[in-house]
Design brief:
The complex is a heterodimer of chains A (241) and B (379).
Chain A (H helix, E strand, L loop, with lengths): L1 E2 L8 E14 L2 E14 L3 E5 L6 H8 L7 E6 L2 E2 L5 H11 E4 L11 H10 L5 H14 L15 H13 L5 E5 L7 H16 L4 E5 L3 H4 L4 E6 L2 E7 L5
Parallel strand pairs in A: 4-9, 4-10, 7-8, 8-9
Antiparallel strand pairs in A: 1-3, 2-3, 2-5, 5-6, 10-11
Helix pairs in contact in A: 3-4, 3-5, 4-5, 5-6
Chain B lengths: L3 H8 L3 H34 L4 E6 L7 E2 L2 H6 L4 E9 L2 E3 L8 E4 L4 H4 L3 E2 L2 H9 L3 E5 H7 L6 E6 L5 E12 L9 E4 H7 L6 E2 L1 E6 L5 H11 L7 E5 H10 L4 H30 L1 H9 L4 H32 L15 H28 L2 H6 L2
Parallel strand pairs in B: 5-10, 7-9
Antiparallel strand pairs in B: 1-12, 1-13, 2-11, 3-5, 3-12, 4-8, 6-9, 7-10, 8-9
Helix pairs in contact in B: 1-12, 2-9, 2-10, 2-12, 2-13, 10-13, 12-13
Classes of the chains: A alpha/beta (241), B alpha+beta (379).
Chain lengths: 241, 379
């Protein structure tokens, strides 16, 4: 279940209560997010839509522990992360969050295998275990045969699949995808969206995705609209209609 | 260790820039190796000089002689347990560029005075029997591909003519630092053949019972010969060697000055390259932080990259210097102890690591303080 009303779901994975975020630009203060409330259950595929500057990416950054709110609380899997120190947030992110970005953000001098292995280097897994995890993640995204290719040797869609493999390799609690299809052609975008859907349906992952593309949003179970820092409505996507 | 693939991969990122940076390290540490070797070559004599040996020379100058009769007088001074003498011959083998030090020695006492030189007994005995015999250091033998029993012509620059010697023995040193590029022959032979200077010697060595008394005994010696036609200056062998080096100027100061300029420039070059490299990778560092890499780990990663550059470049540079010095003394005689020591290699790698840390510090701190959200915006 996805709700923008407080105290809606007792078993919500992600809970935001009265979350606000402001930025200062010179003397001007900009309210990027204002009193946002949100409950998302585990296993949901949620799309955030809205015009540029509406606060979508900021919301994603706050949920992912990349930034901290000025007010309100964020509770993930029963753990309030709002008061975490920088180092606590870093460790928490490594354990719970998988990130996928519009421009893939792979390390160009590392192979697909090495890119996917990166999050595991921060764990205590030995080389053999890391190999097993990496091969599993690459097989899920269908790139086992490209593991020793460098990003420049892959298509955009393949690069994004490597990025998704990197996001899921440490088996995070949820995935945050910021415009994951924004730099892809339609066919590749559909492949990526199908893959995200499969992660939700087959592997019970929770996926939060920011997008401008209504077609992409339509693949989600729920679509949340943001405007001027406020969550306005929840609408069903094509996947549930 | 598991981050090494990323560190090495980063070296390959901008190949030209990496090669330039490595090149500057290679040149700098090659220079460091050579300068340190030259400095060591000048100072090795001081390091290995015997603490219990005094050098007695003419007060006016080293090239002025002393009477041979001083030997007995020196032996009578309390605290002196042995006396020997030597004279500079100053010849060349065949042509001027084949210079090396030749000493006419007192064969009765010289070997006891310098126990650090090893000569087989049978060869020494043969040398004593042959008035035209000589003992040659191992390095010098190798330099001219001489063999035992070869007859060697030496053109005498001071005494004139060509003097011929038979190689009766080869000496080596107990320590790697011992000078094995010398040529010794009988002082009696020198006295027989030279046209002038009979009954004189170049300098004396006196062995003291207790090195703590060296200063007092030096004063006693100089007082004994004060107001004579041949006044003396006596000092420890170490002090004598140091004075000899000082004649060439303050080598250490010159080397340190050049080294300081080179390394300061190196820090600027590497620091600038690292700063540009890290700035280009702001987005990637933000991603690493996003994935859960701690700030300290980011700092260490960037510093490690800088240190890796320094150690690879420094290692190659000092390695090339080692190869160069394996060729031996490039001056063919002026720097007999010309070799790159393990200590210098170790200190070069330590300096390289420190330069790497210093150069990488500012970029590393910038990476440490990078806010993820800001970094991601710059992708």
């Amino acid at each position: 279940m996805v709700s923008t009303q407080p105290n809606q779901s007792p078993k919500a994975l992600i809970v935001l209560r009265n979350v606000s975020k402001r930025y200062r630009r010179g003397l001007e203060t900009i309210d990027v997010l204002s009193q946002v409330n949100l409950d998302i259950d585990a296993g949901e595929f949620v799309a955030f839509m809205g015009p540029s500057g509406s606060g979508k990416t900021t919301l994603l950054n706050l949920i992912g522990g990349l930034d901290v709110p000025d007010n309100g609380s964020i509770i993930i899997a029963g753990e309030e992360i709002t008061g975490f120190s920088d180092s606590m947030l870093t460790a928490w992110r490594a354990r719970h969050v998988g990130f996928v970005f519009q421009l893939y953000n792979l390390i160009p001098v590392l192979t697909a295998y090495q890119n996917v292995e990166l999050p595991l280097l921060l764990t205590r897994l030995n080389k053999k275990s890391r190999k097993k995890h990496v091969e599993t993640a690459l097989s899920i995204v269908g790139l086992n045969d490209r593991m020793h290719h460098y990003p420049r040797q892959l298509s955009g869609g393949q690069e994004q699949r490597v990025a998704i493999a990197r996001a899921i390799v440490s088996d995070p609690t949820f995935l945050l995808c910021d415009e994951p299809t924004g730099d892809l052609d339609r066919a590749s975008a559909n492949d990526i969206l199908d893959l995200l859907q499969r992660l939700v349906s087959d592997y019970k992952k929770t996926v939060l995705m920011v997008t401008h593309d209504p077609m992409a949003a339509g693949k989600a179970n729920a679509i949340l609209h943001l405007d001027k820092g406020k969550l306005n409505s929840v609408s069903k996507g094509l996947a549930t209609s | 260790m598991k981050w090494l693939p990323l560190l090495f991969a980063n070296l390959k990122r901008k190949k030209t820039r990496s090669l330039m940076t490595l090149g500057s390290f290679i040149v700098a540490f090659f220079l460091y190796g050579l300068l340190a070797t030259i400095n060591d070559a000048f100072n090795q004599g001081i390091e290995i000089a015997g603490a219990d040996r005094l050098v007695v020379r003419n007060r006016i100058s080293l090239i002025m002689p002393l009477p041979e009769s001083y030997k007995e007088q020196l032996k009578q001074i309390q605290g002196i347990s042995g006396v020997t003498y030597g004279s500079w011959f100053g010849g060349v083998y065949k042509e001027e560029r084949n210079f090396f030090p030749q000493f006419a020695i007192d064969t009765d006492t010289y070997r006891d005075m310098f126990p650090e030189y090893i000569i087989p007994d049978d060869q020494w005995k043969e040398f004593l029997k042959d008035r035209e015999g000589c003992i040659v250091g191992k390095t010098l033998m190798n330099r001219f591909n001489w063999s035992l029993h070869d007859r060697i012509p030496i053109k005498a620059s001071i005494y004139g003519g060509v003097w011929e010697f038979n190689i009766c023995g080869i000496y080596s040193g107990k320590r790697k630092t011992d000078d094995t590029s010398q040529f010794w022959f009988h002082h009696k032979y020198l006295d027989e053949r030279r046209q002038w200077g009979h009954g004189t010697v170049g300098w004396y060595y006196a062995k003291v019972d207790n090195p703590d008394n060296a200063l007092r005994i030096s004063e006693t010696i100089d007082n004994r010969f004060a107001n004579s036609p041949f006044e003396t200056t006596t000092e420890t062998e170490k002090s004598f060697a140091a004075g000899f080096v000082r004649q060439f100027g303050n080598i250490k100061l010159i080397i340190r000055s050049v080294g300081a300029v080179v390394f300061f420039t190196l820090i600027l070059i590497t620091g600038s390259n690292m700063a540009v490299s890290i700035r280009e990778r702001t987005g990637e560092i933000a991603i690493l932080k996003t994935l859960g890499m701690s700030r300290i780990r980011v700092l260490v990663l960037v510093l490690s990259e800088s240190v890796l550059y320094a150690l690879i470049g420094g290692g190659i540079g000092i390695g090339l210097a080692k190869l160069y010095t394996l060729g031996g003394d490039p001056t063919k005689g002026m720097l007999p102890l010309f070799y790159l020591s393990g200590y210098t290699i170790g200190s070069a790698l330590t300096v390289a690591a420190l330069v790497g840390i210093t150069a990488g510090l500012i970029p590393a701190v910038n990476a440490l303080n990078l806010r993820i959200a800001d970094g991601l915006r710059r992708v």
